[in-house]
Amino acid sequence: MTTRTARPFYRSALRVLAAGALAVAAALRFAPAAEAPVAIPPPAVDLPAGDARSETAVFAGGCFWGVQGVFQHVKGVRRAVSGYAGGSRGDAHYDRVGHGDTGHAEAVQVVFDPREVSYGQLLQVYFSVAHDPTQLNRQGPDVGSQYRSTVFATSPAQEDVATRYLGQLSRSGAYARPIVTTIETGKAFYPAEDYHQDYLTLHPREPYIVYNDLPKIEHLKTMFPALYRDAPVLVRASLR
Fold first, then answer.
1. Domain total for the chain?
2. Which of 21, 34, 47, 63 is catalytic?
3. pLDDT tens-digit readout, 31-41
């Protein structure tokens, strides 16, 4: 079981052991499956597009590398930034958040065009392929409250849609275990360090990415073909 403080050493060890990361990935094919996607209905209640060309949503669902990578491949998303939400500005640093006592969760801020993709559709992707909402304070090998499943609603309207959707999904019977996702409001988002941005795209052969995160991109492509785009929208590109 890999904790936050152990994960940097976990990654470094795998790099040394895997002179060819693809060989490690091939071996991992025989390991227990990573989080499986779940086919779920869209929200019965969604936000109208309106006249706005840009809206912001914030989601937490385990390591932000994979969550960011998923939303970077969603049509209508203009920017997806890895960061921290739930705690204070002073604690919004990788080393501090990793202790699990800051109130922060690794999160992703998604800036999207509501004329192309709705908030409800983003929620559907989040609950279906971006993470497993039935895991309490963990995702896959990562354990701690900083990996909790949380929707950080940025408006009362988002809070209402997310709350209704949670109820809808809980009643649907789509999940084998209870959904543990929480909804938090009034929490600021703080971008993570530069080396965390676009991590999935920049390190596609890293074993952690190969096993835990690349399958999510394939699930998005398979389950939401109308929302999928092949070329991700990258943070570095948006800063040029």
1. 1
2. 63
3. 444 678 999 99
